[in-house]
Amino acid sequence: MNMKTVLILLVLALATIFALVCVLLTRGRAPNTCQHQPPEQEDTNDGQSLVFADLTPEEMVRVVRYLQGNLGVQLVDASRAKPSDNCIASVDLQVPAKAEVLRFLDGGGARPPREALAVLYFGNQPEPNVTEYVVGPLPTPAYHRDVTVQKYGGKVPYHRRPVTGREYMDINVLIQRELRKAPHFLTACCESDGTDLAILTTAPRGFKSGDRATWFVLFHSLAGTGYYLLPVGLEVLVEHRDLHVSRWQLRQVFYNGQYFASTGDLEAAFVADLLEVVRIEKPQAEAVLGSMRPRRLPGSPGPLQYEPQGPRYSVRDNHVTFQGWSIAFGMNPNSGPRLFDIRYRGERIVYELSLQEALALYGSNCPGGMSTRYLDGSFGIGRFAYELVRGLDCPYTATYVDRHYLVESDTPKTNQNSLCIFEHDAALPLRRHFSDSQSLYYGGLRKNTLVIRAISTLINYDYIWDFMFHSSGAVEVRVHATGYISSSFLHGRGTDYGNRVGPHTLGTMHLHHIHYKVDLDVDGQLNSLETQDMGYKLVKEPWGMQNTIEQLYLRRERLEREDEAAFLLNAPMPRYISFASPNPNKWGHPRSYRIQIASFAGEHLPTSSPMERSISWGRYQLAVTRRKEEEPTSTSIYNQNDPWTPTVAFADFINNETITNEDLVAWISVGFLHVPHAEDVPNTVTVGNGVGFFLRPYNYFSEDPSVDSPDSIYFSSEQDTGACGANPLACLPPATACAPHLPPFRYGGFLNL
């Protein structure tokens, strides 16, 4: 073997060794396409969004300690307080005044002092009342001031306070004591001694101010399934106004269409064979109506959404950024999700976007159902937003955020992972075009949105609250209803009020109405309200003047006063309604954002009803008013238990003030009528049960801002569409190797119950 051959073999050997080393060194590494990429938009907020941040548990504890030491009265922990005690009902953030916040955010002013709003029930006073205090500054409180009269024009009467968990427990004890007086009836009707029956509250609690008498509906209860579909036909009216629990009374009993003064009278009627009893067998776990247990073994996994190079959004504290969007988020324990300082491309679009109330109004021929008008804010829309289930309630790889609250306890509680944030691929083009004439090309953009979501469980119903941010500059707000329907015992002409969905179950008709506050600041605080709609006019065709044509034209109008801008529910409304800036865009039109409502609400409660003013926000699908610091919310948690003299009446906000070049607020109602049917068992599905609205740019820009999206796709007939450099979609196949490392599934949502 000559020297030349040896050298060639040596070089080949070295090359082989080098290749093997490279393979070994790179084995197990993700390809470059899988390397985590930081979000394109840096978070430059510098903590400014913390001015809107919910209170931390530490801040809540400090407020409680301050109140315990500085009010000069004995405070009992609300979790065990009797009506005759004083207690701290809740502690939440006191959102600073808008003018102060804007001076801080936009004008370089001082950060507003951080304060809390504390609600106290004073039952141990000569005149029991509810009082609200602003406490600050945090984190070390040094002062408190009573703001009750300033906010409501007077003290809040004690009977308006929401019912506490302890009060419900004491009512349950009373009902169980009374049920023991009808043992033979309970055995015959329900195969029960009463202790295994579930008890469901209704609201409001009477017919006039000062009443506190509640109908409670009884159901068969079976572990692991919803009892709401299993009424036994028995309902009881409990009077619980007195401050002394020992004086509470069961006032009336209803069973199968008949009313009795007491459970003793009910028992006597049964023993005397004067009562028609419908015998209901105790439900069995394997055949119970409404069971959600799977009936089939799991199949193969469905599609999984993930980000090949990590999230393209950024979350820091209470602030999220995504492709030009910037949002501060939070959760009010009563009214639920609230967003502030929503900006797109650095410009504020919305100062505040917040849920205000959720109304569920029922019909039935049973007393509990026919009198139910739940105002869910008084129960706690935010408080009952529990932990989200990873991979079902939100994508598995979403970002999950804990929320904290202090309600009916001196100790803060945490709903861990109860708010989720994720980028959603709608599997739909945001826009696209295939050109088949002149030149041949394709251009398009995927519809990817940022979603902020929470889900509240309010007794039987689950509400999914979505806030979505599109690359077109649009904001979408959506609510879906799911969970269990509520039901009544089927008797008499029950189907006049719903559909039969079980052997003895009437799915009772009801409406869901949801109210939102939208404080739009379009190109500045000062806006006007403009409407546009279509019309036809009959004209001679101008090229011959021989024939006529129906010419479509645009009707434009600027609304000058609040009364003009209050659009009644289900009444005709201009198709285009916009908050308009005095400043024009490039083409000379006012920079505007359009409000587009997608709703099929039921009929509002007649204004002749003595409780209508408490939900008078429901009169309007849209009402635009001048923004006032003293009108922060459209309702109150005190409206539920005294709707006849509402603490806050939204109708009073509309007083025909001018709305031209003013700081304006849009109040939006959405909802739907629900007539339950067989397919609502076991649960109501979200399909077809979603309503909401859009805030869409309307001449705000000079073109669609999504043209700047890095996700845009364009290729022509002259290009190699399979080349990654020419078509980003051709770069996707390598990304299939970027399957994420999913965290183990864990769930702690039952821990706080």
Features:
Nuclear Transport Factor 2, Chain: A; about 750 residues; 3 domains; Beta-galactosidase, Chain A, domain 5; five-stranded antiparallel β-sheet; mainly beta
Put the structure in a nutshell:
This protein has 9 helices and 34 strands. The model is unreliable at 19-31 (pLDDT under 50). Residues 161-257 form the Copper amine oxidase N3-terminal domain.
Give the SSE layout.
Layout: H1 3-26, H2 57-70, E1 86-94, H3 98-106, E2 115-122, E3 129-136, E4 143-146, H4 148-152, E5 156-157, H5 165-179, H6 183-190, E6 197-201, E7 213-220, E8 231-239, E9 249-255, E10 258-260, H7 263-271, E11 314-316, E12 319-322, E13 325-332, E14 336-344, E15 347-362, H8 367-370, E16 373-375, E17 399-407, E18 413-437, E19 439-458, E20 461-470, E21 475-483, E22 487-489, E23 498-502, E24 505-508, E25 510-520, E26 526-540, E27 548-559, E28 566-568, E29 576-584, E30 590-598, E31 620-626, E32 662-674, E33 690-698, E34 713-716, H9 732-735
Antiparallel strand pairs: 1-2, 1-17, 2-3, 3-4, 3-5, 6-7, 7-8, 8-9, 9-10, 11-12, 12-13, 13-14, 14-15, 15-16, 15-25, 17-18, 18-19, 19-20, 19-34, 20-21, 21-33, 22-24, 23-24, 25-32, 26-27, 26-29, 26-32, 28-31, 29-30, 30-33, 31-32
